[in-house]
Hints:
By secondary structure, the chain is of the alpha/beta class. It has two domains: 2-55, no CATH class; 65-355, Aldolase class I (TIM Barrel), CATH 3.20.20.70. It has helices spanning 8-29, 34-42, 46-64, 103-116, 133-146, 161-170, 184-190, 197-209, 227-240, 266-279, 289-294, 298-304, 317-320, 340-349, and strands at residues 67-70, 72-77, 120-125, 151-155, 174-176, 213-220, 244-249, 309-310, 353-355. A six-stranded parallel beta sheet has the order 2-3-4-5-6-7. It has a three-stranded parallel beta sheet with strand order 8-1-9. Strand 2, helix 4 and strand 3 form a beta-alpha-beta unit. The termini are far apart. It binds S-adenosyl-L-homocysteine (SAH). S-adenosyl-L-homocysteine is lined by residues 86-87, 124, 126-127, 155-157, 177-178, 180, 219, 248, 250-251, 253, 290, 325-326.
Amino acid sequence: MKKIWNNKRDFIFLQVAIMRELVDILREQQHLDSSSYQALLECNDKSVVAYLHGQAREVGDEVFGKGIFVRGLVELTNVCRNDCLYCGIRKSNTAVERYVLTTEQVLQSCQQGYELGFRTFVLQGGELPRDKAPWLVELVSEIRQRWKDCAITLSLGEWPREVYEALKQAGANRYLLRHESHNAVHYGKLHPDEMSITNRLQCLMWLKELGYQVGTGIMVGSPWQSIDNIVEDIEFIEHFKPEMIGLGPFVPQHDTPLGKYATGSADLTCRLYSIFRLMFPNALIPSTTALNTIDPNGRTMGIMAGANVVMPNLSPVSVRKNYNLYDGKAISNAEAAEGIALLEAQLATIGYHINWNRGDFIFKC
Length: 365
Ligand code: SAH
């Protein structure tokens, strides 16, 4: 039989060529089979990873140019009825000083954001007791009336369909609900018994049916997560077709049961940004605070890998330290809405700028 390679160098060369080919196919067809996703996640050749990021960035630039969307994040509350094992504001964490912003505080944050130029407000928080739903609906409708030209994004966890519907009717446009892990066994290890991936997926389906622009995603490198799990998540997202994809590394929080587990990887997070950019050229993919927390260059790395959104913090400064999902959360400078000039400067170093438009998902004709 004829030998197709003569030595180790030829073999590596061939491997690299195959991996680059996979990136090209993903760009062309927006799809790969599961073993190819796995190969891209496991490949340890730096030139392939650089190629993956470069192709993703090219595709992002074709659709969005050099503009990066900004969303003003309002951390509505750290009160939570859930007990996710990784999350610093889980209900069992007695070390947390709990708060719920008042309507007035939320409106002030939005006002400040609006004056700075933000046209999307993201209300994120722990999961309030169910009897607070009418207040949430009222709050959304107040924001809608005051800022008719702004998008309202919610990231408030799991609610019955009627609540999602009332929030939508009140004026919410988008909803972020990471599925966290599509694999039931892995999901089960990260969450208490009362929570299930079935319910999470049901919520995502409702949100879609109700006409929200929907975001989902995972923590990268959460405890016990295998590459197979991530491939399963990629395939779920590919099938679900969200408008937004939220991915950040797992970062331990010392008062949680998972506080001693290892931090997730920035490299893997960025590879996933690239894979999703190639899969969904139009998607809104934030370069997350968690990524910027574990690497001081995280934000720009994320953008260079294909992300196109950043979410500076608009919450009142006094509560920011209490919204501690994980340790070391980046809360100042370019991470804060007041630091917008710094963010502009940071983006300029990589040839990008802020796009102040509300930046709805671009539907393909
Ligand atoms: N209660 C809402 C919002 C949760 S906070 C909800 O359940 O959707 C938003 C995201 O922060 C979560 O979806 C989770 O993926 C992420 N997160 C929570 N704890 C984290 C940690 N320790 N490290 C990294 N990300 C975390």
